Amino acid sequence: MIFNIQRYSTHDGPGIRTVVFLKGCSLGCRWCQNPESRSRSRDLLFDARQCLDGCQICQQAAPEVIERALNGLMIHREKLTEDHLTALDNCCPTQALTVCGETKNVDEIMSTVLRDKPFYDRSGGGITLSGGEPFMNPEIALALLKQSHQQGIHTTVETCLHVPWKYIEPALPFVDLFLADLKHVDSEVFNAWTDGSAKRVLDNLKRLAAAGKTLIIRVPLIPGFNADHASITAITRFAADELHVSEIHFLPYHTLGMNKYTLLGQPYSAPDKPLDDPELLAFAQDIARQKGLTATLRG
């Protein structure tokens, strides 16, 4: 199950890349900018701004789950089934209702990836698996990475590493670069904001480092969670002293994904304002350089 294939990307690894976004994630990060990626099944998004008054196409397609109310459509998401999603897919003339997620096999995905091999060869680019968490789909992730390597294509995985190690290990020979999230090193804080286990992530990071894999650490800086001197220092020290990486990326928090929660009918519980703290960002870069790391700010 994927929710996008983005060609000509220049922000998800070296060179020009094709990014395959796989659905499914085992974390519940409050600030997630791709909430449509969390579920391993399809999602229904509704943008009331695009809905046409008087139109009844979606109601006719799925009357059990959609009804017209005084203030627009009422969607009974708890009743949604795969049959309803199939009926609603591409039925809306204005795309107010859209279904996120489609099933593709490895050959279908690779046919898209291979279209741009000349660009990869010229720029040092390749394929990037993203998500969600790519290793929540370990079989298809392994197959895509293996086929890409066989075609001489550079491979990158963007990962939170919150999966069993047995999901990751088979793919190691076929991954050239890991863009790995290191959100926090404190177990209680990590769990409170992500519903996950920091130990699982830290253990997997250590295993990747021990396996000699190329790692770039990415740190989303979230107000109230880790956007403070103590957290940044602890994260940076772990990256340098435990993982012995050479590069770290700091990603200041933004709210560009906030509207997606409305589209999905979900609450948004992260801060409602982006991180605006030049002094803190300067501190993060300085502490990383003191530890011998190349520090980059990513928008």
UniProtKB/TrEMBL annotation:
Its cofactor is [4Fe-4S] cluster. One of its GO terms (molecular function) is metal ion binding. Residues 11-290 form the Radical SAM core domain. Its EC number is 1.-.-.-, 1.97.1.-, 1.97.1.4. The keyword Transcription regulation does not apply. InterPro entries: Aldolase_TIM, BssD/PflA/YjjW, Organic_radical-activating, Organic_radical_activase, Radical_activat_CS, rSAM, rSAM_sf. Keywords: 4Fe-4S, Iron, Iron-sulfur, Lyase, Metal-binding, Oxidoreductase, Pyruvate, S-adenosyl-L-methionine. The keyword Iron applies. It comes from the Bacteria. PANTHER family: PYRUVATE FORMATE-LYASE 3-ACTIVATING ENZYME-RELATED (PTHR30352:SF14), PYRUVATE FORMATE-LYASE-ACTIVATING ENZYME (PTHR30352). Belongs to the organic radical-activating enzymes family. This is Pyruvate formate-lyase activating enzyme. It comes from Trabulsiella guamensis ATCC 49490.
